[in-house]
Design goal:
206 residues; mainly alpha; 3-stranded antiparallel sheet; two-stranded antiparallel ribbon; 5 strands; globular
């Protein structure tokens, strides 16, 4: 099936942002933006779980329970991601690199399933990684699943309201092309946040 022409620039943007974030996490280099390669050390477990300020929300061993201000750990497996039932804390807690990467990967995986999969995957089904290597692998798998969902969409699907039935957003009320745009901006802004946390970790000792 040919890719719809209006999906192509959004797909190209997704591929660029996905690749840039993957390089920023795993190295060995990342494009500075002007064609110059900058060396990037691979993400370590210590940095993955680093809490830059007190009372961060993060991913935690389920046996340890949620962090301050959180009331539950979402996800499957021995680790979960800090969360709470509504209403959420105000102001929102600062979230670690681990929290943000887990959030992005979960979003991509569940949206993919609710687009061209079983339409049944929930946050309780999504495995939360407690280590950097596992989290990077999860991001790659989730991004690949979402890209496959994009490639399954024809022009009619792009205009279909509720083509994605993702339950944690407005997808059921939106044309799919709007959902595609939204996912790109989620990846853009969370990717930038993750990159900033990496910079802060590197500079924390001056």
């Amino acid at each position: 099936m040919a890719t719809p022409s209006r999906l192509i620039p959004l797909l190209q943007q997704f591929d660029f942002v996905r690749g840039r974030l993957a390089d920023r996490l795993a190295g060995p280099v990342v494009d500075s933006g002007n064609g110059t390669d900058i060396e990037v050390p691979p993400l370590t477990d210590a940095e993955y779980l680093w809490e830059p300020v007190p009372d961060c929300w993060s991913v935690r061993r389920r046996a340890d329970g949620p962090g301050k201000g959180a009331t539950l750990l979402v996800g499957a497996g021995d680790w979960g991601r800090d969360s709470s039932h509504a209403p959420h804390p105000t102001p929102p807690p600062f979230t670690t690199l681990a929290w943000r990467l887990s959030h992005v990967s979960e979003m991509l995986a569940i949206r993919a399933d609710h687009t061209n999969g079983s339409h049944a995957l929930t946050r309780d089904d999504y495995h939360v990684a407690g280590d950097a290597a596992g989290a990077i692998a999860d991001f790659d798998a989730s991004a690949t699943a979402w890209r496959e969902a994009l490639l399954s969409a024809d022009d009619a699907a792009l205009d279909t309201v509720g083509h994605s039935t993702y339950p944690h957003g407005s997808d059921p009320e939106d044309p799919f092309i709007d959902t595609v745009w939204w996912v790109n901006q989620e990846l853009l802004h969370h990717g930038a946040e993750i990159a900033m946390i990496r910079d802060l970790y590197r500079a924390r000792r001056g």
